[in-house]
Amino acid sequence: MVRRHPITQDYRLVPAAAAVWTTAVAGLFLSWQAAVLTGLAAGAVGFAAWRRAWWTRTCAIALLISGPVAAAWVGGNVLRAESHPLRLAAGEGRSTTLTVELSTRPRGIRAAGFGGHQAGVDHVVITATANGAQLVLLAPADRWRDLLPGQKVTVKGTLAPPRGGDLASALLRVRGPPIDPQPPPVWQSWADDLRDGLRQASAVLDDEEAGLLPALVVGDTEQMVPRIVDEFRTAGLAHLLAVSGANLAIVCGAVYLLLRRLGPRQAAVAAMVALVGFVVLAGPEPSVLRAAVMGAVALMALVLGRERSAVPSLATAVLVLVLVDPALGGDPGFALSVVATAALVLVAPKWARALKQRGVPNGVAEAIVVPTAASLATAPVVAGLSGQVSLVSVVANLVAGPVVAPATVLGVVAAVVAPFWSGAAELIVHVAGPAVTWLIQVGRQAATVPGAAVSWPDGWVGAIALTAVVAVVVLLLRLKKTRTVVVAVLVGGFVVLVPLKVVAPVWPPDGWKVISCDVGQGDAVVLATDDADRAVLVDTGPDPGAMDRCLKTLGIKRIPLVVLTHLHADHVGGLEAVLTGRAVGAVAVGPLKEPAWAWREVNAQAPRARRAGGGTEGGRTVRLAWTGVGGDGTAAADGRPGHEHDGERLLARAQGTHESWPGAAHR
């Protein structure tokens, strides 16, 4: 038997790629001066490495050149964005009328619906350019959701400072519909027709499956049921809902495996055709093109078998993409694509060879290692974004992996066929239905596992911390002396913590929406808002102590609205505790003012809200005439039968007092 020598990877361009990426991050999140200093420092290291022969000549020269180039290019772009007249106007909150060219498709901002059902999309976020500057548009969904990249429109709105972390000079809050929209490019219209066809054909499935299939194929999540999104996030399957380099590589790799018997060249061509088809179908936006580049890099290793060229190709892709669009340096999707692709080209082949040496068949070994490697590698980035670590991610991806490719391929075929033959497209969607249902069930069952996801610090701190933890664990597992101890600790922790999670679950649960406080006789219901320390309170119970303990446990410090459904003691007795040490905006009661003593007490206590909150919320008593908010759920405040949707409107109005930020649409 011929023994294959391990393939030596070529890492000469990695320092240059890392320098360019780091320079972009410094510029986007700090300042243009930080970008210049970072790039010049990288160039200085490259110069020293070249003079003292620390590394190979190619590696040192690449770093020496790329560092100053990144410093000049990234620093210049950040400075241009920070000093653009629109940035200055945004700081003053000016109103303006601009002619903009859209760069991305509108992305809806969706609130979680009640009972896990989908809620309406009121606004969309669009990236655009105007007068040499990048803008983020926050626009009404009804008139803007059908626009396409490449269209030029005139827009009126109010400027505001951007959220940071990108090259946007301003946020534009749009008023009214687009004015004089120009026709989009032909290829954008064609791709939009294909996506609409897929969406319409998917309607033959149940709501959950109909929303998931377009998300799986083209990243279109507008029809997704929020419950599925939450379950996929907990199960570690959220990457399936976006067009990513890892997803493209997995799908194209599956196409290659299916057609491998036709010959390597024919299979490679088919895989590349699948890649191009995805780009056309999803729309040639920057995020999709980025994913295509990363997917093509992975194909070099997994499809063409040229593993030595994978690392320099990936490094070149990072260099080119970040220099062309420095904003990618701060894009979480870009980080996910790079990390997942690196895992596929560096880790997956080694693991696959190890499994094959132990007798695992070819296709099975690759089907196991590809999702496993991608899930483990992207875990730190996902933890930084979501603030949680999925402990079932690897298993969920292994179980879901076999049906991802068939469902996606069938979805692509349905999208292509739909504009010409809707009946055939619906039949193809029916065939894909069981695979989509399987994915939903995998996500649901994985999310219900006790301790399926654990809380973790979010942001950069969380990502770096989990990276360090994973690196230490992997290092200890590689050492024979510590391997047994590490395995014992991991297994012991799992055996102890999971039952503890079941017997004594953490309260309040993560992501809570409605909490009923234990106040004995009476009611006290807390309704969550977008901020963790802010909530709407319906009734206050009879006991100030119980009410205060509940709000402190939930971490509630700001209450924009206290709703007293009626003035019985078991519903208003805890009002004094609510108003003590918290910022309260208003106390709302129904039109009935009985009993009289309670009405006097409420009016006497409400002005304390301003003093308790330090003036951050105005204290006042508001008389409301609404229906369907009866404390016992059977009658309204005015005695008429209640309507279940009125409580939702009340919560929506209370949440509307907090200005929402469109950053969620970019995650």
Report on the architecture of this protein.
The protein is of the alpha/beta class and 667 residues long. It folds into 5 domains: 14-83, no CATH class; 91-184, OB fold (Dihydrolipoamide Acetyltransferase, E2P) (Beta Barrel), CATH 2.40.50.1010; 192-456, no CATH class; 467-501, no CATH class; 514-655, Metallo-beta-lactamase, Chain A, CATH 3.60.15. The chain has helices at 14-29, 32-52, 57-83, 85-91, 141-144, 186-202, 207-218, 226-235, 245-258, 264-282, 286-302, 310-324, 332-357, 362-386, 393-417, 422-447, 459-478, 480-503, 544-554, 569-572, 575-579, 596-605, 608-612, 646-655, and strands spanning 95-102, 107-112, 118-130, 133-140, 152-160, 168-174, 388-390, 453-455, 514-516, 525-528, 535-538, 558-559, 562-564, 583-584, 587-589, 621-623. A 6-stranded mixed sheet has the order 9-10-11-13-15-16, with helices on one face. Helix 6 packs across helix 15 (393-417), helix 13 (332-357) runs antiparallel to helix 14 (362-386) and helix 14 (362-386) packs antiparallel against helix 17. The longest helix is centred in the first third of the chain and has 27 residues, at 57-83. The model is unreliable at 1-5, 111-120 and 610-667 (pLDDT under 50).
Brief digest:
By secondary structure, the protein is of the alpha/beta class. Helix content is 55%, strand content 12%.
| Cα radius of gyration in angstroms | 28 Å
What is the 3D form?
globular
Percent of residues in helical segments?
55-70%
Domain module count: 5
Number of strands: 16
